[in-house]
Amino acid sequence: xxxxxxxxxxxxxxxxxxxxxxxxxxxxxxxxxxxxxxxxxxxxxxxxxxxxxxxxxxxxxxxxxxxxxxxxxxxxxxxxxxxxxxxxxxxxxxxxxxxxxxxxxxxxxxxxxxxxxxxxxxxxxxxxxxxxxxxxxxxxxxxxxxxxxxxxxxxxxxxxxxxxxxxxxxxxxxxxxxxxxxxxxxxxxxxxxxxxxxxxxxxxxxxxxxxxxxxxxxxxxxxxxxxxxxxxxxxxxxxxxxxxxxxxxxxxxxxxxxxxxxxxxxxxxx
Length: 270
Description:
- There is one protein chain.
- The protein is α/β, with parallel strands linked by helices and about 270 residues long.
- The protein is built from nine helices and nine strands.
- The chain has a seven-stranded parallel beta sheet, sandwiched between helices.
- Helix 3 (about 90-120) runs parallel beside helix 4.
């Protein structure tokens, strides 16, 4: 029996690296996308791809198809974060955040779907975030990009029913990855006189502390592999600490103003 073929975007670090390594150890044929040369990962084939460059995406997918003849699973993972007050994002920063985290997913879906539809089988896993179901302060456009992924995934899951292609959204909480070090801040933050400066410092310190105390990325990789093996997976999965799973429950059951007070307190917003 031929190996199941998995395409994972953004495997140079973090979730992507952990998922690619774990699936390769489980005997999947793993193809991971990178933008530049990186250290090898045992059992993982690299494809050079920039998810924001549509031609780059289609060229890389075509290379994979030429080699394997199929794609069984697409895991949309590539992303980035920019921190800052909504008011202070430049148009260029907004476009970069949305182009990477949302349009990047659209590009890979567009490139892969014709091959899945032809075979009438496949599974698309879109990595979202708890920030895709609750707006996080000073991560407003990151949350917006993940909210967009959530809405797209719901619509896509319905459209693909006739083609036996499943769409799954995975919502990680805080994990200890390089995402913390790689987070950018809006350029205006360099001005100590701006009205959000002190509050942003306090809130970002909480965000980074939560991330550094987060779960190991291999925990998410294990959950992803279980989803790949499920014949009838749920549409969405939350992969987070018990405290963060509780926060999701509270958002569902509490009056909104009460939940906002809890979030404001956690993020030290006076």
